[in-house]
Known about the structure:
Elements: E1 2-14, E2 24-36, E3 40-44, H1 51-58, E4 66-71, E5 74-75, H2 80-85, E6 87-90, H3 102-113, H4 121-126, H5 142-155, E7 160-164, H6 172-189, E8 192-196, H7 200-206, E9 209-214, E10 218-224, H8 225-231, E11 236-242, H9 248-252, E12 258-261, E13 264-269, H10 272-284, E14 289-296, H11 299-307
Parallel strand pairs: 3-8, 3-9, 6-7, 7-8
Antiparallel strand pairs: 1-2, 1-4, 4-5, 9-10, 11-13, 11-14, 12-13
Amino acid sequence: MKALEVDGVSKDFYVTERFFLGPKKRVLDNISFTVERGQNVAIIGPNGCGKTTLLKTISTIYLPDEGTIRVFGNDIFRHPEQARRAFSFVSPALNFQNKLSLRQTMKFFGRVVGKRPEYIIPFLKRMGILHMMDTRLEGFSEGQKAMVRLAIGFIKDPKILMLDEVVVSLDVERKERIINFILEQDELRDLTILMVDHEPTVVDRLCDKIIILDKGGVLYKIVSVKELLAMVPYRFDINVSLKKDMSDKQLASIGSDFRRYGNKIRYFAHDESEVDEIIKQLLKRSRFVLEFSTSGVSLKDVYFWMMEGKLGKF
């Protein structure tokens, strides 16, 4: 069963603050894809490619200028209420009334979606904020507010969970708690997840399919996580910290494919023999090198190439 069908969706915005006047900029350009029920899908791509705009358009915050979107068969134009009942959209842009307590906030949003707020008690307990039920939200940290936003998303008991960088402000421990909770809910309720996140480890653990957008809001490719990793043009990277500065010419004599970030150098290798050669050269220049480490290709590397504008190399 198709949870989501996006067909030929485009979205334009006026480039000036004078609404309905002047030129427009195309942010999404003829996007089409489907998501089956139970699939977990990440939307990734370079900055400014329209990832959040796509989520907001699917969730009816924006309406597309062209194309159609169906949520479990319900067209968001013709049957918006039926479509909205199926999903929750969790975003850092969700604001609260800071003078309300957590208990009052949960009751308010429970009434809005017609659900009992008690449903979300286990989540609040797992996140370590259940004891703050009578604390005003103005006393919450940004990380705690991020967990409140996610709790609001779960109150609705959605079939589709749309997440826009929901763990970006969290520490490692809280991030791990949230990922585990989402995985458990996915197992129990057969959730469909559509998410935007710049954290490769989050995408790697939660998603099985990836939609890549390119600059200009163009759909570049739809792949599995395994297929995406296979597209990276190398298999290993070697991260080096320098204790003495080296010129680009000296660095190139160690390995030809590298990037410099101050005293941090990153080398790329296609195979193990290339890794061995780079390590051999680093050891010869030990007076310059503080430390180095080698790792295999990961989604972090995919993000690196996209942020560097190397998407076309895949």
